[in-house]
Prior knowledge:
This protein is mainly α. It has a single domain (about 120-420), classed as ABC transporter involved in vitamin B12 uptake, BtuC (Orthogonal Bundle), CATH 1.10.3470. The chain is built from 17 helices and no strands. The protein has helices at about 10-20, 55-60, 75-80, 100-130, 140-170, 185-200, 200-205, 210-230, 240-260, 265-275, 290-305, 305-310, 315-320, 325-350, 355-365, 370-395, 405-420. Helix 15 crosses helix 16 (about 370-395). The longest helix is centred in the middle third of the chain and has 35 residues, at about 140-170. It is a multi-pass membrane protein. Belongs to the binding-protein-dependent transport system permease family. FecCD subfamily. Keywords: Cell membrane, Membrane, Transmembrane, Transmembrane helix, Transport.
Amino acid sequence: MAERIPNTQPAEASAGTAEQAAPPVPEARTGVEQSPGFPTARSANRPTGTPTGAAARRRSTGALLDPVDGHSLSPRSVHKPLGGGSRLASPNRRHAGPLPTGRAKRRYWSVFAVLAVLAILTTAGSLVWDNPMPLGTDGFWLIAQMRATNLVIIAIVAFCQAIATVSFQTVANNRIITPSIMGFESLYRLVQTGSVFLFGGLGLVMMTGTLQFFLQIVLMVVFAGLLYGWLLSGKYGNLQIMLLIGIILGGGLGALATFMQRLLTPSEFDLLTARLIGSIANADASYLALAIPLAAAAGGVLWFGSTRLNVLALGRETAVNLGVDHRRQTILVLLLVSVLMAVSTALVGPMTFFGFLVAMIAYQLADTHDHRYIFPMSWLIGFVVLAGAHFALKNFFYAEGSVGVIIEIVGGTFFLIYILRKGRL
């Protein structure tokens, strides 16, 4: 029988041998996968130099850390900039909306404030400048009241032209046309010329009055309604064809008016010419009782329907896909535009390029697609331009009746520049 050999090794050596023979124990999982290039906050057996304080608390969340600066990349902290605070509070942070950045908002309201100040200065200058009566007397306020009537007329014309032109360009999806191409002004010229041609100088007196003013508006709206209903309600209704036919009809009516003007006597033609040029002097204070409600009703419907106009501006296919009855809304907008243009034309006469000038400047200054911001900007621009031109021509050039001529020249020049330049439309 073999003899037992006693263990003569010291206890320390036995412990070291057992320790070497034992297999390595795997590290405990921390709940976060080890990603290459991204150190985890709970790595086992972390070497000395482990951060303490705020860095240790940040690294104890188990989130991934930036390998460059060691900042946490957790979803709760990604949206926060390194300097503290939220990125959403940045003034230039873009977001969905008509004014996408804080800079755009500041720019819009700054421009609007400047135009409002100009409008106030123009109004005050028109009431006070060259008033022969002492300030505060009854005579002073009587003259100021007469001048205030002209300012109200200017505000109505600017409102009608601005809202009508912007809305018309929206449904037509074209920023280089105006509602005047539909023949409103040619029809106005034909009515005025026909009255003088048939009744002589007495015809102008017959066309003066609230009833005659209302009949001219009705005639223009009925003409536009028949044109729109005929060309847009059919199965093959087309807006481009309607615009083309409107231009042709306007040219035909204008040619007929020109033919009758050739047959007038020089005195009759001289009387007629003053009525065919857009001028604030053509308006009568008695017309305001009818013009203000019509303009407010038609313009108010368009203003409160700005969101529908925003959808119509996207095009027919997109509007239909978004649930908008494109044909019905287009006809409604065009009829309201015809009411506004009829009120403006019957009130002061034709101003072909005034609406285009106002709309073009409004697009550039507002720099947004939303009609809720374009409408007030365009109205304010129209008032400043028309009131400023009227004030300057009346007090410095003594040519108050030439406002329409100046507006046509300036507006036509801007129109050519707008067409010929290389920039965006």
